[in-house]
Amino acid sequence: MPRVWKHMFITGTTIGAIVGALLAVTSHSKVQEMAQAVSPPEVEVAQVTQQDVPLSSEWIGTLEGMSMR
């Protein structure tokens, strides 16, 4: 590999690593800020009671067969 290409490769890799590290640090802090800013959702809680429930099903049907001609 010629010296110029080797120098460009090393420089590009270094710049890429620095940019990647900066993006990782800034995105991590933004996620923490968003997690702190969002309050927990309000939920409704109901007591469970055991009881008999009638089971029924409704189905759509036809008495005529389908013909694929």
Quick recap of the structure?
The chain is mostly helical.
SSE diagram, text form:
Elements: H1 3-37
Average pLDDT, rounded to a whole number, is 81
- What would you call the shape? elongated
Approximate helicity band: 40-55%
Report the major sheet.
Answer: none
Tally of contiguous helical segments: 1
Order of helices and strands: H
Q: DSSP strand (E) fraction?
A: under 5%
Oligomer: single chain
Rg calculated over all Cα atoms: 32 Å
Unreliable spans are: none
> How many individual β-strands?
0
- The class by helix and strand makeup works out as mainly alpha
Describe the protein in words.
The chain is mostly helical and 69 residues long. It has one helix at 3-37. It starts with a helix and ends in a 32-residue tail after the last helix. The model has no long low-confidence stretch (mean pLDDT 81).
Descriptive keywords:
69 residues, mainly alpha, 1 helix, elongated
